[in-house]
Design a protein that fits this description.
Layout lengths: L11 H9 L7 H11 L4 E4 L6 H13 L16 E4 L3 H14 L7 E4 L5 H10 L3 E4 L1 H9 L10 E5 L1 H6 L3 H9 L6 E6 L4 H10 L4 E4 L10 E7 L5 H12 L4 E4 L3 H13 L4 E4 L5 H12 L5 E4 L14 E4 L6 H8 L9 E7 L4 H11 L5 E3 L9 E4 L5 E5 L2 E2 L10 E5 L5 E3 L25 H4 L35
Parallel strand pairs: 1-6, 1-7, 2-4, 2-5, 3-4, 5-6, 8-13, 8-14, 9-11, 9-12, 10-11, 12-13
Antiparallel strand pairs: 15-16, 16-17, 18-19
């Protein structure tokens, strides 16, 4: 049974902000977590990606901070009361925007700090005083060391996407940050998946937490249609075109495993006539934010990205997600497909698996506890136009009838059988041979002529002890006669 936001004991400014955003009924994680957080207890919450974890901790946190609300301009009257830690810059920026919307009718201040940007504007905001600070661990430590952020009055700490922070090695940074905080505080830990490491972290820093598990850990959203297609690596781009055309999909995320593969695929799709942007760790923060804003505004059709965008990004009404590469970590699959089918909407998740991805697919099957059927995908002969690099130092070129006239031959596929030595081998493409080089050796009928250096005798005198094949040094007339050596008289 759904519960309405109007049933919550929230302050009037917060209720107005929620109504302005069009929210009426709470999601399951919100219905269970908000009342518990309002009582001031520690919470360890697990829910599927896209079920509204941000509102589950933001609204009760702001409600409990309303007692500190004041209109004073003095920074001393606005110390940091709540700290929200997130693993990526994009997620930190998104959560900060959500909190600002919830608090827009209050006098509570909030800001966000993350790496990849100049510290000076962030320092100015911190010096003005903020009650809610959203941050990534690395940049927050920079501000703590620079004495820009004082955390001795923090009452609430939120660790969002905690499993991802541990995956990318933020545990030492988290331990340092938590050591700066008061012992008496409320700690909230939210994540889409729970692992033994997360439970150990909760045991160290949470005090008798209330465990809220709305969905089975690592479960995928029921509103997302999951399809797995068996496609060779060279045909994955054609498969994306086919699904986009058949399903009439206007926007989609496309996930790859490497930054180099992300850039190459984005360029290839752009040459195919699709509005495409790339999002990966080698992009500057400004480029990443611009790519996200363009995708949200509908100026970009496809956002090709690495797993930097797989956690928590909330872009409404994205109809599909493509896994161009099967993720190395099975848990990342849950987060990737969570970019579609958010807040109860339907979505499509397409995974393109080559024969070499069988082990990774089996790990996903084990994690989500569902049988995965690899479906064949019939591709048309037409190939996308434009030259593209297949990642193996070979360039291909497509046209309406197949490969271009000047394109190199496609590399032969690896043979399924094994060679005599037990290893796999490649079938070599047939190469045209010149019959001249196939004929056996035939000696010439005429006697061989002597070499030119032996046939023509050298003219002129030959110095004794010198080879006749060495040309003597040319004599040059001297301007001055060299003096004769003086003889010694005895």
């Amino acid at each position: 049974m759904t519960q309405a936001y109007s049933s919550l004991a929230l302050a009037e400014p917060l209720k107005r902000a929620v109504a302005d955003m069009g929210y009426e009924n709470m999601t399951p994680i919100q219905a269970e977590a908000i009342p518990v957080v309002l009582t001031g207890k520690d919470v360890m919450g697990a829910a599927q990606t896209g079920t509204g974890k941000t509102a589950a901790f933001s609204l009760p946190l702001l409600q409990r901070l309303m007692k500190h609300e004041n209109a004073s301009a003095s920074p001393a009257r606005h110390p940091v009361r709540a700290l929200v830690l997130l693993p990526t810059r994009e997620l930190a920026d998104q959560v900060a925007q959500q909190i600002a919307l919830y608090a827009k009718y209050t006098k509570l201040r909030s800001t966000v700090v993350f790496g990849g940007m100049d510290m000076k504007p962030q320092t100015l905001e911190l010096k003005k005083g903020v009650e809610v600070l959203v941050a990534t661990p690395g940049r927050l430590l920079d501000h703590i060391e620079a004495k820009n952020a004082v955390l001795n009055q923090v009452e609430y700490v939120v660790l969002d996407e905690a499993d991802r922070m541990l995956d990318i090695g933020f545990l030492p940074d988290l331990q340092r940050i938590l050591s700066y905080l008061p012992q008496q505080r409320t700690t909230l830990l939210f994540s889409a998946t729970f692992s033994p490491e997360i439970k150990r972290l909760a045991g160290s820093y949470l005090q008798k937490p209330v465990v809220i598990e709305v969905a089975r850990p690592n479960e995928t959203a029921s509103t997302v249609e999951q399809r797995f297609f068996s496609v060779s690596g060279d045909d994955k781009r054609r498969a994306i075109h086919k699904v986009l055309k058949e399903r009439n999909i206007r926007q989609a995320f496309i996930f790859v495993n490497s930054k180099l593969g992300c850039a190459r695929l984005a360029r290839a799709l752009e040459r195919d006539g699709l509005k495409t942007a790339a999002l990966h760790g080698d992009k500057s923060q400004d480029e990443r934010l611009k790519a996200l804003e363009a995708f949200k505004a509908g100026e970009v059709d496809l956002l090709v990205c690495t797993d930097v965008a797989a956690r928590g990004l909330d872009i409404k009404d994205v109809p599909a997600v493509f896994n161009h590469d099967v993720p190395f970590n099975a848990e990342d699959y849950v987060h990737r497909i969570g970019r579609t089918g958010r807040a109860g909407a339907s979505g499509l998740a397409v995974t393109l698996a080559a024969s070499s991805d069988a082990r990774l697919v089996a790990e996903i099957e084990k994690l989500i506890k569902k049988k995965i059927e690899l479906e064949p995908l019939q591709l048309e002969d037409e190939r996308p136009r434009g030259r593209f690099n297949d990642g193996r130092r070979a360039w291909g070129e497509g046209d309406a009838g197949g490969r271009g006239a000047h394109a190199p031959e496609r590399r032969p596929a690896r043979s399924s059988g094994s060679s005599a030595g037990g290893g796999s081998s490649y079938h070599r493409a047939a190469v045209s041979r010149d019959p001249f080089f196939e004929r056996p050796y035939e000696p010439s009928a005429a006697p061989e002529a002597a070499p030119s250096w032996e046939a023509a005798p050298r003219s002129g005198p030959v110095r004794p002890g010198l080879s006749p094949n060495i040309k003597p040094r040319r004599k040059v007339a001297a301007l001055f006669r060299a003096p004769l050596p003086e003889t010694l008289e005895h």
